[in-house]
Amino acid sequence: MSVTPKFRVGILGASGYTGADLVRLLLTHPNVEIALMTAERKAGMPIGDVFPHLAGYDLPDLIGLDEVEWPAVELDVVFCALPHATSQEVIKGLLHATGHSLLDEMVVETTGDLADSISGEVKVVDLSADFRLRDTDVYAQWYGREHSAVTLQPKAVYGLPEVNRDQVRKAHLVACPGCYPTAALLALIPLLKAGQISAEDIIIDAKSGVSGAGRSLKEANLFVEVAEAMHPYAVGQHRHMPEIEQELTLAAGEDVRISFTPHLVPMNRGELETIYVRLKEGTTVGDLKDQLVDAYADEPFVSILEEGVVPATRMVRGSNRCVLNVFQDRIPGRAIVVSAIDNLVKGSSGQAIQNMNLMLGLDETTGLMQAPMFP
């Protein structure tokens, strides 16, 4: 009788919403043992005291980062669900403590054979923004501080599996996309690559549940502040803008600038983006729909809905799915693409596990086939 292999996993920042969803999803993953969980303010507590829905499982207690004994803890994968700026420092420190080959300057020139040169070493999936932007000057501009792990940045792979699957398989450091970029990029990259839409005049109207703002205590996130209301935020200056533009520019082969406005809506989880695009001459809305169907025909987590069916967050809640559809705009030459994901799953923790599966050589869907929850 064969024994299912188990990989030892650590979650840094397990007391946040993304950390909790990592735990929830990994509890049913047949190839994973959660061996370490950290949380600074909740150090010393069982995870069930922080999140009652996770009580009763055989899980380690939360500890502080300074209590982790690298490399004695012997992890195969580390999920870093820490705030930006903190993440880059911690990842650099743990790679140094474990003597990781990623810190070798020579590795920068041999990225294509990275998997062979550092096999057996810990793999890191970062859920923060710290390694998403390839240009560290752009990072400094948008995040208000210099990047402190500049030599690591070129070795990070942008973890959108539907686009970068082969690179993720070889990677030892993956930067998980933000939730807003995930929904936008899945909708737009195939259309830009095919030259069906203009790289100009892309307008993204995005809406997310309150969990996207994190679990820290903020007056703006109190129930009375967010219930029965909706409001835009970070208008014209949201930090996901350069990330979206970076990946769309790669897809289009020309510079892409977007108009992007996020909104906070009074629901716990879920994200919906209504995206307005200009068609290239001779292209129809039907062509866009056909392109998306072809692009995602073999993708396990992206679905193109039937004609006229409008994506909604209830279609994806709690799942690693993204649902898309295309509609005719009443303005000639324009189309509307609608994309829906769960911001905590496909937009964060689920996509992180999808990346982990690829990095470990597992079936990409392992532990991620939960159907959406409704009601």
Automatic annotation (TrEMBL):
<protein>
    <recommendedName>
        <fullName>N-acetyl-gamma-glutamyl-phosphate reductase</fullName>
        <ecNumber>1.2.1.38</ecNumber>
    </recommendedName>
</protein>
<comment type="function">
    <text>Catalyzes the NADPH-dependent reduction of N-acetyl-5-glutamyl phosphate to yield N-acetyl-L-glutamate 5-semialdehyde.</text>
</comment>
<dbReference type="InterPro" id="IPR058924">
    <property type="entry name" value="AGPR_dimerisation_dom"/>
</dbReference>
<feature type="active site">
    <location>
        <position position="179"/>
    </location>
</feature>
<dbReference type="GO" id="GO:0006526">
    <property type="term" value="P:L-arginine biosynthetic process"/>
</dbReference>
<comment type="similarity">
    <text>Belongs to the NAGSA dehydrogenase family. Type 1 subfamily.</text>
</comment>
<keyword id="KW-0560">Oxidoreductase</keyword>
<dbReference type="InterPro" id="IPR050085">
    <property type="entry name" value="AGPR"/>
</dbReference>
<keyword id="KW-0028">Amino-acid biosynthesis</keyword>
<dbReference type="Pfam" id="PF01118">
    <property type="entry name" value="Semialdhyde_dh"/>
</dbReference>
<comment type="pathway">
    <text>Amino-acid biosynthesis; L-arginine biosynthesis; N(2)-acetyl-L-ornithine from L-glutamate: step 3/4.</text>
</comment>
<dbReference type="GO" id="GO:0005737">
    <property type="term" value="C:cytoplasm"/>
</dbReference>
<dbReference type="Pfam" id="PF22698">
    <property type="entry name" value="Semialdhyde_dhC_1"/>
</dbReference>
<dbReference type="GO" id="GO:0070401">
    <property type="term" value="F:NADP+ binding"/>
</dbReference>
<dbReference type="GO" id="GO:0051287">
    <property type="term" value="F:NAD binding"/>
</dbReference>
<feature type="domain" description="Semialdehyde dehydrogenase NAD-binding">
    <location>
        <begin position="8"/>
        <end position="171"/>
    </location>
</feature>
<dbReference type="InterPro" id="IPR036291">
    <property type="entry name" value="NAD(P)-bd_dom_sf"/>
</dbReference>
<dbReference type="InterPro" id="IPR023013">
    <property type="entry name" value="AGPR_AS"/>
</dbReference>
<keyword id="KW-0963">Cytoplasm</keyword>
<keyword id="KW-0055">Arginine biosynthesis</keyword>
<keyword id="KW-0521">NADP</keyword>
<dbReference type="InterPro" id="IPR000534">
    <property type="entry name" value="Semialdehyde_DH_NAD-bd"/>
</dbReference>
<dbReference type="GO" id="GO:0003942">
    <property type="term" value="F:N-acetyl-gamma-glutamyl-phosphate reductase activity"/>
</dbReference>
<dbReference type="InterPro" id="IPR000706">
    <property type="entry name" value="AGPR_type-1"/>
</dbReference>
